[in-house]
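Let's practice the habit of predicting before peeking. Look at the sequence and jot down your guess about where helices and strands might fall. Then scroll down.
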Amino acid sequence: MEYHEHIALRAALEWQIEAGVIDALGEEPVDRYAVQLEARAAPKPEARVKAPAAPVEMPKVDPVVVAQQSAAQAGDLAALEQALSAFEHCELKMGARNLVFSDGSPDARVMIIGEAPGRDEDRQGKPFVGRAGQLLDKMLAAIGLNRAESVYITNVLPWRPPQNRDPKPDEIAMMRPFVQRHVELVAPELVVLMGNISCDAGLGRRGITRLRGHWTEAYGKPALPMFHPAYLLRQPQMKREAWADLLEIRARLG
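Done guessing? Here is the structure:
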């Protein structure tokens, strides 16, 4: 080795030591540029594409089917009330104070189906106990009926909607099987559908102004649509039509 080569190699070694190189990985120097070129030229192995795991889908629950099954298993009114209380697929239940099931005589010839509980009904757990209920009692008394002996009362929805809003279509749909079973267990001679929501649930139609006063069939029973007492409180001029409907009920009962 020539002297000047020795000096150059020594200087390079000292420079590496100053740079922090303390271990030798091989006896011969490695040309990193050549290694990179060889790596680029080498054929690449086929990459294995890992198929994404299929998402696990939870079984969907149809609230209407659950309601149908639950209602069908109720053998009496107490069991039906328990089935409603255990039903977990209606969000209205979360914001209500009480389940509003029914009032009146289960042996009555007339069954009244209202829309949904209001504030007073939610507090007391009974249907038609507020101002609308007081008007209903007067209307029934005018044709010789009363809730204690000759009328049975319930609602399409057993829980109060927030701010007394109208029930949503899916809420009506999931409560309809319970109403159907309710009518079957009470077995009245006729049903009174009070208000648009009640007509929607029982007839699949709305438009109480056109429907009222005309006998039809709902839940397998003769049914008469009528204005809701709450509507009559807001529109007292419509009480004349309500009186005509009451006379229809009295005539039907003989």
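How did you do? The chain is about 45% helix and 10% strand.
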